[in-house]
Batch of 2 targets.
Target 1
Amino acid sequence: MTRHLLIIFGGLSALAKIIVVTSGKGGVGKTTTSASFATGLAVRGYKTAVVDFDVGLRNLDLIMGVERRVVFDFVNVIQGEATLRQALIRDKRYDNLAILAASQTRDKEALTIDGVQRVLEELAKEFDYVVCDSPAGIEHGAYAAMYFADEALVVTNPEVSSVRDSDRVLGLLSSKTRKAEQGEGTVREHLVLTRYNPARVAKGEMLSVDDVTDILAIPLLGIIPESQAVLNSSNQGVPVVADTETDAGSAYADMVARFLGEERAHRFVEVEKKGFLGRLFGT
Amino acid sequence: MDWMKLFRSERKNSAHVARDRLKLVVMHQREGRGAGPDWLPRLREDLLAVVRRYTEVADDAVHVRVQHDQGVDLLEMNIALPEEERGGSVSKAGST
């Protein structure tokens, strides 16, 4: 009995968890979320790799501040032009964190499912978590990013087109992933509501958290307030979670804690809970 | 927050409009996936054509879905009639 349990446990812990950050719609905060989520996991002591799947429009390197260190990329590794070790960029600020950049010049078809699988399996040997930053849309790149996922962060803005696209993506997660195709269970879905503005919600000008969770019907992992801090940190190539003094930074830190199983009440839901700066700058 | 509610009811609440529109769109979107046989979308199209022989309805007026409940497959149809036809604006039918 005990022996069986041990074997099962060992089998599970040897594999990294693969998490796709996806949304359908562009510009809702996928890369911002990928960068902060991966950095947050690394800060908490987990070996984490974050992979940019947006071939042709790479940006994760810029958000992570490693754009000048990209020598080889994801496609180079898939095509055998570089080893994973050569292409992985080890973050200088966080020991546990590594970044794999997307190719800026190839086309999306270069991400073959076999190739992606080989790279993810190799990453899974070294890392506890592999975060896949999906491109926008529901074409090949997005499909490749979600195919091997164990869990998904569905990044959504409280806005009609974003919610509709997120629902489309949820449909794909339940049918077009390896788990779905091979009957290995379901991809665990989490809602990350970004660019939330409680003041506008109170005025009836923006969909509320309840509206969005009601429509999408997946568990809420985090609410990230619309924040000046996001642009400030992307300007500097620092993930916003690095500064937990900021509203968005602390919201991302909370999100990571919840992902790791901690109980944390959602903040930034009500106007009253905004800090002085938030009141001053929130529109 | 109660005074806010009063405030809200006096002006057009665009968030409520957004929520209601989204609910319809998403319901429609979900019919095409996952649960249910693959003839479901065609049934929906046929039903829409039949309803349109009698009255004008929008493209998304007809909803069909199959639910599995305690070992029984239930086919649920929802047909939303246009405003002027109100008298029972939504008709529902279920069959096993």
Target 2
Amino acid sequence: MKKQNSLNLIILMLSTLLMPIRAYGYSEAEQSVLTDVQPAVAIEKSTSSKESGSVNPETGVLQEGLSSIFNLQTNGSDEDYDFIVTSKIMTEGGEVSGYGNNGSILFGHTFSMPTSAAIEDAKSGGNNNKNVIAYPVTAAITNPMTVEFQNNYGIHGDCYVVKVNGGTEGTLTHTVGQNPISGTYNIGQDEAGEYKAVVTFSAVSK
Amino acid sequence: MKKKKLTKLLPAALALVLMSTAAYAAPSDEATSTLQITVPEFINITKDGSSTETTSATFDDNYSTITLSPSLNAIFNVINNQPDREIYLSATAPTSGGSTTALYGDDADNMKIVFTNSTRQPADTSVTNITSGSGTAYKENPDAIAFAISPTITPDTESGAAEPQKEFAGNKATYTIKNGKYKMQYTIGTTAEANTFSTHDTDGTYQATMTLTTTGP
């Protein structure tokens, strides 16, 4: 009986000794964590943009050209995004594209809004475009990025298309010239007041 | 059975997770620049070079009728870029007191103008006798002669101009014009208004000055 008790005691002791070993026993697992870095983009208007100016009412010449400067940062590619610059102008019938057919950007009277017909006339360089004034426009962007004007660029319509060409940072400068496009400023047609165009630089994911 | 259901749900759940991840991971971004141009108010009123500002007078044997030839014409060109702008037509004639208002009439289409002798300038009362009562007696308006005015206002509709609103009050014609270009012509009659020409009107040069301006009364 004693022998049996001793044996039990030994087993108990061994079990006690072994338990911690089991509790802290070595085990190993491997887990691969994959992070999928999605393309991202940030576009910001620079405070150095010059967005307002006054014209000589006799000639329509701006005292100084206007410029919209945008800073672009992206890790995306041209396959990820459409990088586009659009211009909008308000008409009696709503908002329309404000780029003309002749390298121009249109400004519309904010109070006496122009008609769609006046917009179309100014876009084609006509002289029957009450309350619309067109000025030459250019766009440039820092290397290696490029920018080019495109008519009817898919769903975006008339716009400047930026290609990042692998670049991650760029500065786009959208410049409005001082002299109105011939036929689009006429003191008899264009009322005194404020004229507006809205320029937007967008990255639209594909 | 439960295990089978879970297996079926897993692809759908994964798809949902992936879709929401994609939406947040590839956002569109944009910045906007609002460009604004101010076109200040502008108006330019000029006398047209084709105006006829001098003429000669002839008389009948009784010195009771005066006839001008050629007829006088005051022509103004107006260029304006403000809708609903008021401009005013007035006239003065020299008097011994300096000058006085010389325009009168019933309305903007039936105006008259008084010319006064610039060398023997009459008193203001000589002119007001005509402008206030259309010439009550020859002796009351010496050295002052009145003529009718025929206005012809031509809006250049191509420029956006339209027929102006007009009224006559306070010895001035007031025109409310739209933005655009206008030719405003005032032809002076060739014979005098009743009771304003007689032997009380001595020889000399008679003068009146018409002014079209934005400056109101």
